[in-house]
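ok so for the tutorial part 2 we go from a plain amino acid sequence to predicted structure tokens. step 1 is just haveing the sequence, like this:
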Amino acid sequence: MYLEGSDQHRGWFHSSLLAAVGTRGEAPYRSVLTHGYVVDGEGKKMSKSAGNVIAPQEVIERSGAEVLRLWVSSENYRDDVRISEEILTRLSEAYRRIRNTCRFLLANLADFDSERDAVPYEALPPMERYVLHRLQGLVERVRSAYARHEYHLFYHAFHNWCVLDLSAFYLDVLKDRLYCDSPASSARRAAQTVLCEALSTMVRLMAPVLAYTAEEVWEHLPAAVRTAESVHLAALPQVEPAHHDEALAATWDTLLAVRGEVTKCLEEARREKAIGSALEAKVMLAAEGELMMLLEAHRDQLPEIFIVSAVDLVSPEAVPGGAMRSDELTGLAVAWEPAPGKKCERCWVFREDVGSSSDHPTICSRCVDRLRAR
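step 2 — the prediction. this is what the tokens look like for a chain of 374 residues:
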């Protein structure tokens, strides 16, 4: 491969091509990759007189080499590549989110032995299988981006996976299970199985770009998952066809769309200081047709998915007058009211059975059962 700026199409690329064809009868390279010039945040050429030069060594000393590598991957090099303090600050935040996501996953795998505790795919709950389905999409996009040298597509896909799929959804929903369930419960082990699979996949996908962070994470993975001495000796993950489930994905995409509408409603309540946490609320949902059938089928999971204390499914006539009507999901209305009962000091869910155990007067019966199962 010849790698240089676009001016070399008439320079090095051209002259070496003529020389090689004339002397050997073939091109001197198998492929050519050209990139634009590095300019400042406003697209202006860098110069010492303008005071807009940012030296790579200064970035490394201040923010670390990983932030510089992440910046390189985030830019579409086919155009001029912009860099500024504002851009580097944004990339530092993105790196921090990726690193903290990996730290969270590692922290919750501390007691997990993949050979002893892993749950077979067929026995995983639907939400876990949905996350694995989404993970296959990430593998597919990143492998394709690497093959085409489109590293900015890796950056956007990987960052969105950490922020949207994991932090804003799956990890947020999982906290009750990870922190409050008995350590060896099947639900907690199922979650850990997916976290382990996700992190093992993530660390290999990010290794070409975040080389040092990937190696650091690799060293702390469960021993059975580390298939090589170094992450840089391990193969990129392949798409697992058995984990593709389009029907399941369609169901959960709809559930997450409903979750988004519930979040909007509760955010408005928070802005008005009516509630402090979503767990202080009981949500009422009204819908019709297939959407109501879908919600009915997942009735028991809805409080976990929405991270609220209770969910009631009501007819359109029974929904309160001030309910929020969805613009995205036809026929969906969302309302809330204070959750009944008291706050459990252990899981923070409001339940009417808090104090039902004389041995544990400040926690709910569900947490009492979890403590007894330890």
